[in-house]
Design goal:
Layout lengths: L3 H27 L9 E7 L14 E8 L3 H31 L7 H17 L4 H61 L6 H17 L3 E4 L5 E5 L3 E5 L2 E2 L1 E6 L5 E6 L5 E3 L7 H37 L13 E2 L7 E2 L1 H5 L18 H8 L13 H41 L3 H35 L1
Antiparallel strand pairs: 1-2, 3-4, 4-5, 5-6, 7-8, 8-9, 10-11
Helix pairs in contact: 1-10, 2-4, 2-5, 2-6, 2-9, 3-4, 3-8, 4-5, 4-6, 5-6, 6-8, 6-9
């Protein structure tokens, strides 16, 4: 029935509804700088009217629910792009370290060591029996071998550093999975009673974004509001209120493979199925890029060792000895000058014939000329060409990765800004809402005061 007490109740409900609006507005303002926060709004709805003469009369307003302003499909798109962004970020950082190893603009490097090695043979050809020239040749040869070994060591250290990052990231992934599973429980408990778990959902969305930047995931939400997260071609990482762990196990290369562990403790290798996130970028650098550089470096070292040893074996030392290898080793990682030659400089075979000693320089000259011979890549390139191609490959990989990173960063920033335009808090808009709720609250209070005065008038008539 529409009476003064009904109007008084209408004013009370109006006060409560506008107060909820002020509460939500204050919550938005307080979280204007909170990462991942989605602004909220009160959905106001008219209360059920009552039938009366001459017609239905409204009974006021009520706060139906507190809604979270959020675009679910945009959230999925952001996670997908985060996977690519994380991949290029980690790959770029690792490859830039590799580029620094081959950068010779600020210091001594392999290119200069190779040049000085060939020049030392040329100097020896000018004085094949000279003690000083032989001493310099051995020193430059040892420097060249050391440069090869150092490059291999530095590249392998990058692999180990990347491997350490992969192992450490597993703990972070497992922690995020545990937190998402815990939030699944909280969201279910809140929403099963008809509430909107807005803040919990924002927190879970932020965790999913962080997780997607680390490893590629597939996620979907069921009818209970619980999200399922899959990795490695369908292996569950989070399901319902439970989470699974990712771990690592050592492989034959003294590195680590990523494994998924089931409830019974069984492990399934998923390294080859990871296609996004920081982990994927690190895996690609560790298992593809760095091995390519190491292989190219070893091919170059093996080529130099083979060609120099072949010519040196055909020459004669000062004492007439022949058939001696100048270099020892099988790759760039263990190349070194023959220790016998290091201990006895007379064993350097500068002569081509035993009868031409000690002034015969033809063998030393032949070795010095190897610098410009087409001995690499099927007799189509020189040693310098081979090393320059390797340096160019590293630089090209870095430039390609940097370009992809810039492109992916721009896409992610665009999506983030677009999300902010939808879900972000605008202080100007919230201040306007605050003023509107305040005025509505004041008006509802005035309504109650008016009804109170009317009741006092009726009471005074008795």
């Amino acid at each position: 029935m529409s009476d003064l007490y009904g109007i008084l109740g209408m004013g009370r409900e109006a006060l409560l509804a506008q107060q909820k609006g002020i509460d939500v507005t204050g919550h938005n303002i307080a979280n204007v700088n909170t990462p991942g926060f989605s602004r909220q709004r009160v959905q106001l709805q008219t209360r059920e009217p009552i039938s009366f003469q001459p017609g239905q009369i409204g009974t006021g307003v009520r706060a139906q629910e507190i809604q979270r302003v959020y675009d679910r499909f945009l959230g999925v798109q952001i996670r997908n792009e985060n996977q690519s962004l994380g991949r290029w970020e980690s790959q770029s950082g690792a490859l830039e370290k590799a580029e620094m190893i081959f950068n010779e603009t600020t210091g001594y490097g392999l290119n200069q060591a190779m040049s000085e090695f060939w020049n030392a043979w040329q100097d020896l050809s000018n004085n094949p029996s000279g003690q000083a020239e032989r001493t310099v040749l051995i020193a430059k040869s040892q420097t060249l071998a050391e440069q090869f070994r150092d490059l291999c060591g530095d590249l392998n250290q990058i692999r180990k550093d990347v491997d350490t990052s992969i192992v450490g990231t597993m703990e972070e992934i497992n922690l995020l999975a545990d937190q998402i599973a815990d939030l699944n429980q909280k969201i279910f408990q809140a929403e099963v009673g008809g509430q909107n778990a807005n803040d919990y959902r924002d927190e879970r969305e932020l965790l999913l974004n962080q997780l997607s930047s680390l490893i590629d995931i597939t996620s979907f939400e069921n009818s209970e509001g619980k999200v399922t997260v899959l990795v490695g071609n369908g292996k569950p990482l989070v399901e319902n209120i439970y989470s699974w762990d990712l771990s690592t196990e050592s492989n034959g290369d003294d590195l680590h493979d990523i494994v998924w562990c089931d409830r019974d403790g069984n492990e399934v290798a998923i390294t080859d199925t990871i296609s996004g996130g920081r982990v994927n970028g690190w895996i690609e650098v560790r298992d593809v890029r760095i091995p390519e550089y190491l292989n190219s470096l070893s091919v170059l070292a093996q080529g130099i060792m083979a060609e120099v040893n072949t010519v040196h074996q055909g020459g004669f030392a000062l004492n007439g000895t022949t058939g001696i290898d100048f270099f020892e080793g099988v790759s760039a990682a263990d190349i070194e000058v023959n220790r016998n030659i290091v201990n006895d400089l007379t064993l350097v075979a500068a002569a081509s014939e035993p009868g031409g000693l000690p002034g015969d320089n033809r063998n030393a000259l032949l070795i010095s000329q190897l610098q410009n011979e087409l001995t690499m890549k099927g007799n189509t390139a020189t040693f310098d060409d081979c090393y320059n191609a390797l340096s160019s490959k590293v630089g090209s990989d870095v430039r390609t990765t940097s370009a992809n990173l810039c492109h992916q960063t721009a896409i992610s920033e665009h999506l983030t800004n677009y999300r902010e335009s939808i879900s972000g808090v605008s202080l100007d808009e919230e201040m306007i809402n605050l003023v509107e709720y305040q005025h509505a609250y004041d008006a509802a209070a005035k309504l109650i005061v008016t009804v109170d005065e009317m009741l006092q008038t009726i009471i005074s008539m008795v």
